[in-house]
Design a protein that fits this description.
Length: 237
């Protein structure tokens, strides 16, 4: 069962245990970016993201929220737009993300999708901005509990090559889960947000120093080696 003639041995390596378990690790506070999917004055996805940010700070992280007000539609502006640049700089800065969206018509909001669509999968300055970073997903609903939006966010997270954690949060009847000061009330929904943030922080600590090795792909090594070989061996004019 070890006959593998199609493998290119020069690009095929067993996992490097030294790379997976480095003796030295980063000690700075984990950097987490939070995105939310509504611009309403009383935006429950924003309020839940703010609550999550407070919890992350208590867990020893540096948390930043992106305000999507003024972010243009994709293809209605260029990547040089100031809000697009602000978002992309924050994505490059962070080591993990939280996506918090309302559910509207059974799906994430257009604003949530617009933010994600402005984040390129291709490298910026030689760096893939999302690959190997951690992700937690949350949603709020005005009615009964649903999981449509978090399931969609998981698909997008996988597409963006993010390490999406197993736990997630979905808060039903969100209008009844926050007080007049915009703070989330004590409840099982609040406890779940704490659970999700705890898990996100643990996964971020575990993976941030080894994400390059975790997402290093055989197919990309083959492609890069073949591209290099083609360039080096190209006949001169």
């Amino acid at each position: 069962m070890s006959d593998t003639p199609n493998l290119k041995d020069e690009a095929f390596f067993a996992p490097d245990l030294a790379a997976l378990f480095p003796s030295e690790r980063s000690t700075h506070r984990p950097r987490i970016l939070l995105l939310y999917g509504s611009l309403r004055k009383t935006s429950y996805s924003r309020l839940m993201a703010e609550e999550a940010a407070r919890i992350l700070e208590r867990l020893g992280c540096e948390a930043r929220l992106f305000n999507p007000s003024g972010l243009p539609l994709v293809d209605d502006a260029t990547e040089n737009d100031p809000k697009v640049q602000e978002l992309r700089e924050l994505v490059l800065w962070c080591e993990g993300m939280v996506w918090s969206s309302p559910e509207r018509h059974g799906a994430m909001t257009g604003l949530m999708k617009t933010q994600i669509d402005w984040i390129p999968l291709a490298p910026i300055g030689g760096v893939r901005p999302t690959q190997g970073k951690t992700l937690a997903v949350m949603q709020v609903e005005g009615g009964s509990q649903s999981f449509n939006t978090v399931n969609q966010l998981r698909i997008l997270g996988r597409w963006m090559r993010l390490l999406t954690i197993p736990n997630q949060s979905s808060a039903a009847k969100a209008w009844d889960e926050f007080d007049g000061n915009g703070r989330m009330k004590p409840s099982p929904y609040y406890d779940r947000v704490v659970d999700v943030m705890e898990e996100l922080v643990k996964f971020t600590w575990l993976t941030r120093d080894i994400k390059g090795h975790l997402v290093d792909r055989y197919s990309e090594r083959v492609e890069s080696r073949e591209a290099l070989s083609e360039r080096v061996n190209k006949p001169k004019d």
